[in-house]
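Assess this today:

___
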Amino acid sequence: MDTVTNSLKSQWEKLKATSPNLRIRNAAEQLGVSEATLLATQVGETVTRLRPEFAEILSDIEKLEKVMALTRNEECVHERKGIYLNADFSSPHAGLFVGEDIDLRIFLSHWAKAFAVAEKSEHGDRKSLQFFGKDGLAIHKIYLTKDSNDLAFEELVLKYKSDDQSIDETADEVPLNIDEKADADIDVAGFQAGWENLKDTHEFFGMLRKFGVTRTQALRLAPNENYAKKVDKDVIVKMLEGAVAAKLPIMVFVGNRGNIQIHTGRVRKTMWHGDWFNIMDPDFNMHLDMSKIAQTWIVRKPTDDGEVTAIEVFNEMGEIIVQFFGKRKPGIPELKEWKELVATL
């Protein structure tokens, strides 16, 4: 163990002693290191390094039975309980889990490190699998619940345990690509015609690339306000409270560069905690830091199934924080009640 890692380990111990409820992500920030670097200081104690065989590990998660999937970015946390069903890693672009409960779009090219963690806390043992990018930022975490299969967890850790159990960890900076072309350099007429002629919401991303526009720039350059309208961030709270009152099933998409996690279903309980607006349901929690929201848009896209309406939320870098839709599936038109709810906003 080198002296830097040793010093980091003792700094974290001191921090935990003074702030026992501090989350590792925030501790890493305070100590000026990545979360993966800080977590690795516990290898050989509460942490085991796993081989970076991500598709294989994820395909085995079903054996753990009911777990909690956690995906987050800087501003929003998405926690969904369920069983990992229907793993599909046949596409080179994105891996999939498509189930009623666990619904993920996984971009493995950004995944770099895997750890198994078994912590002790005042609430009992807490076991998890944690996956990080090259920059040491957490991409996805899977926590065991009281309904999980503990034995399957132990077997999985043994099966994928790495030969490398060192506590030293490096993190590479991943550059943020936020350069935006000037509006004058964009074929705005071509872009607007492309938007008006969309057949599927999934074509939107390809269209952004084709015309070289960023997402927030695209919303500014939309054909008209019916396609994209900037609104106050309070709309999010009104929409979620409206969905609770109307018992309306919605979809909540939260992601980072390595994973997008989706909840589909009703929302039952919302509450404020400081700057955070939260959904607190038995199998689904969302925590959204309202103070970090820079832009909120109501966005409409034409498709073969009719118009699809979303509320899209961005940080000051123009990165997407969270997206909300009415519950829908390909081939089925958007819920009339969702359209009506968004119209009241």
In short: The chain has ten helices and 18 strands. The two ends are 57 Å apart (CA to CA). The chain has two domains: 3-84+113-160, 183-343. The longest strand covers residues 111-121.
